[in-house]
Write a structure and sequence with these properties.
Elements (H helix, E strand, L loop, with lengths): L3 H24 L18 H5 L5 H19 L7
């Protein structure tokens, strides 16, 4: 059962995400939101997995991966990396 603080935080987080989405749309920044489950066999890394959205190095690597994927797929080459 979620505590009062967790419920308030979840509600606040959802509000911030919606506002961020509106700002991105107004500024013309397309974005996507993904929901990713912890892969099987990685149960020992739950804490690290949960903190990935705050890991700036991870975000930068993910952005680079997406950029490379989009460039390769637009060229008609295999988008596998």
């Amino acid at each position: 059962m979620e505590s009062f603080v967790e419920k308030r935080f979840k509600k606040y987080k959802e509000k911030c995400e919606k506002e961020e989405e509106i700002v991105d749309e107004m500024l013309g920044y397309p974005h996507i939101v993904l929901s990713i489950r912890l892969p099987d066999g990685c149960e020992e890394f739950v804490d690290k997995f949960i903190n990935l959205p705050c890991d700036l190095d991870f975000i930068k690597k993910l952005e680079n991966f997406i950029k490379e994927y989009l460039i390769k797929s637009s060229r008609g080459t295999s988008a596998e990396l």
